[in-house]
Amino acid sequence: MTSYKYSSSSKRGIRLSCAASEAANPLTHLPPLLCFHCPSMGSQADSSLQSIRYHRGSLQLLDQRKLPLDTIYLEIRDAAEGWEAIKEMVVRGAPAIAIAAALSLAVETSKLEGFSGTPNDAASFLKNKLDYLVSSRPTAVNLSDAATKLTEIVMNSAATATNANQVFLAYIEAAEIMLEDDVASNKAIGAYGSSFIQNQQKDTKKLSILTHCNTGSLATAGFGTALGVIRALHADGVLESAYCTETRPFNQGSRLTAFELVHDKIPATLIADSAAAALMKTKNVHAVIVGADRVAANGDTANKIGTYSLALSAKHHGVLFYVAAPLTSVDLSLSSGNEIVIEERSPKELLNTRGGLGEQVAASGINVWNPAFDVTPANLINGIITEKGVITRTGDDVFDIKGFVQKTVSK
Fold first, then answer.
1. Scanning 190, 209, 239, 284, which has the fewest C-beta atoms within 10 Å of its C-beta?
2. How confident is the model over 341-367, as pLDDT tens digits?
3. Is the peptide bond before 68 cis (omega within 30 degrees of 0)?
4. Annotated catalytic sites, by residue?
5. pLDDT-derived band of residue 141, with 50, 70 and 90 as boundaries?
6. How far apart are CA 58 and CA 76, in angstroms?
7. How far is residue 233's CA from residue 237's CA, in Å, rounded to a whole number?
C-alpha cells in the first residue's frame, strides 16, 4: 500500500487520477457513477473526515490508526491490500468496512488486463475474491451482506454477458452504487433518529446524548449512524451536549469520535469508559445511542465491546438506549445474539499502549481476553433506528424486525 501524508501546514491535497490505467484498460475509461477526488483544501480538517476517497480505478483509505495526530491516506490497489487494511483497522466501522472491501476489488477489477476467461469465469473470480474479503472481519454483517448482493449481481450478469469485461463492469458499477447509497442511508438514519428522540422527549428542550466507539463519517461512507443522529440533533438545535467514551482498548472514541465532534463544533465531552455509570447518575443524560455490527432477528445486537455495560447502566438509571444502524446490519438468519460470532483481537491491544501500537504496560506472561464486540440483549434496547424508520418493541416486549424489513421491501 502506498501512503500519502498531509502535514498540518499543507493546504494542498493530491488529486486522484487513473489516466494511466484508462489508456490501458477500457473499464476505467467509462464515466464513473461516483468520484471522490482529493481537491485543494481550505483546511486540514476538511479532508481528514473523509475516510474513503474513490475514483474509478483508484482508492485511498484514511489510516485511522494514526488519527488524530497524523492524517495519512493509504492507496489500495487490490483486494489483498483491502483485506489487510480492514484486518489491521486502517478502516473500521461496519458500513465503511463493506464499502472499502467492495471498492478494493473494484479497483483491482478495473485494472485487469488480458483476462481470457468466459463470463462465468469472471463471475467465479469475483465471487472467490469477495469470499476472501469477508474473512477479514467476520462479525460485521454489512461486509457479508455486501458480498452476497454483489455476488448475485455478477452471477446475473454472467448469465447474459457475451464477454468477461461486461461482468467486471457490472461489478464495478454495483460497488460504486453501494458507496453512493451508504451516504443517503446515513442521512436518513440521522433524520429519523432526531425526529423520534425529540418526540420521546417532548418536555425537554435540550438533550444530552452519550455514544460509544466511532459511528460517524469515519466509520461509514459519510455522515454516520449513531453519530449521524447526534449530528442531526445538533442541526435541529436541540442538542445540549454529546458525551463520548474513550472506547478502550483501541480508543476509537477518544481518537476518532472526539475528533469528529470537535471538527463539527458540536458541544461534546470525553469520558473514560468506566465513568459512564457515574455520568448517568450525576449528569442529565437523556439517551445512549450506539451503532451495530450485527443485529439478530430478535433484536439482540453486537457492537463494540463495552456496549452491553452501557445498556445495563442505562436500564438501571432509566436512560433510553437506542441502536442506530442501516438495515444491512440486520441478519435475519440469526435467531438471537447467541449465534453471532465474536471476533477476538490481538492481546497486544491490552498489553501495550495506543491499542497495541505503543510500549508495553502490562506484566509479561499475563493471559489476555480481548473480544472486539459484545452482544446487548434486545430487552435492553428501546429502539433500532434505521434508514427506513425506527423499529420499536411490540406489546410482548420483542422486536418484529422481520416484519419491519418485509414491510419496507414491499413499499
1. 284
2. 999 999 999 999 988 889 999 999 999
3. yes
4. 293
5. confident
6. 7
7. 6
Contacts of 81 (CB under 8 A, 6+ apart): 1, 74, 104
Whole-angstrom distance, CA of residue 214 vs CA of residue 256: 6
Partners of residue 242 on adjacent β-strands: 209, 268
Phi-psi region of 223 (alpha: psi -120 to 50; beta: other; left: phi over 0): left
Task: Give the HSE-up count for residue 121: Cα atoms under 13 Å, Cβ half-sphere.
Answer: 8
Per-residue pLDDT at 20 exceeds 50: no
Cα distances from 408 to residues 129, 143, 150, 411, in angstroms, run: 31, 21, 21, 5
| Alpha-helical segments (H) within 201-257 | 226-235, 252
Q: Quick one: which H or E segment has residue 120? A: helix 119-134
Could you give the CA distance from residue 311 to residue 367 in angstroms, rounded to a whole number? 27
Q: Is 290 helix (H, G, I), strand (E, B) or coil?
A: strand
What is the residue whose three cell numbers read 479497483? 107
User: Can you state the angle between helices 79-87 and 119-134, rounded to 10 degrees?
Assistant: 10
Phi, psi (degrees; rounded to nearest 5) at 48: -70, -15
Angle at 255 between CA 254 and CA 260, to 5 degrees: 95
What DSSP assignment string belongs to 344-399? Answer: B--THHHHBHHHHTS-B-SPTT-----BSEEEE-GGG-SEEEETTEEE-B-TTS-B
Q: Compute CA 46 distance to the chain's CA centroid, rounded to the nearest angstrom.
A: 19
**H-helix or E-strand spanning residue 142:** helix 141-160
Kindly report the length of the chain. 411
Residue 163 and residue 16: Cα distance in Å, rounded?
29
Q: What is the mean pLDDT of residues 301-306?
A: 97
Amino acid found at 323: V
**Strand (E) or helix (H) holding 391:** strand 389-391
Reported confidence tier of residue 2, pLDDT bands at 50, 70, 90:
low
What does the alpha-carbon distance between residue 190 and residue 374 come to, in Å, rounded to a whole number?
Answer: 24
In DSSP terms, 2 is beta-bridged to: 75
Grid cell, residue 406, equals: 418485509
Grid cell listed for 342: 465474536
